[in-house]
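Here's my example:
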Amino acid sequence: MITKIIPCLWFDECAEQAMNYYLSVFPNSEITHIERYPDESLNEHFVGKAGKVISGEFVLDGVKFRCLDGGPVFKMNEAISFTIDCKDQSEIDYYWEKLSYFTELEQCGWCKDQFGMTWQILPHNMGELLANGGNKAIQVMMQQQKIIISDIENAK
């Protein structure tokens, strides 16, 4: 099946580093293509960039992504995030340890990694946990940075 919608991530001269880092975090992942800047003598815009990444394609746990090293013109922000549905607390802990970088920005299972990408690291049954616990569960969740499933389950 051909994937019709593929997220493209804009990096500031760290696309290759980001791809390699994400591959180390997510299982079943691979870089499928890298396009590099050609010889800098071909174009004035290539000066100092020969051999560096222009764009790349990679797969993280079965999800296809594209990226480019577009420079400092645009920055990632919280308007776009990727949710990781976790099977249990140990999986939440794993991804949180790997992806949480800016601790002052963490809240309700949201964190930002070293490249500026925002992640929601949540239990797969988050809706059910909140529905079962009512307002108290929501209040507990709102006070958390990393989600602690047992605290939400025990909200009374």
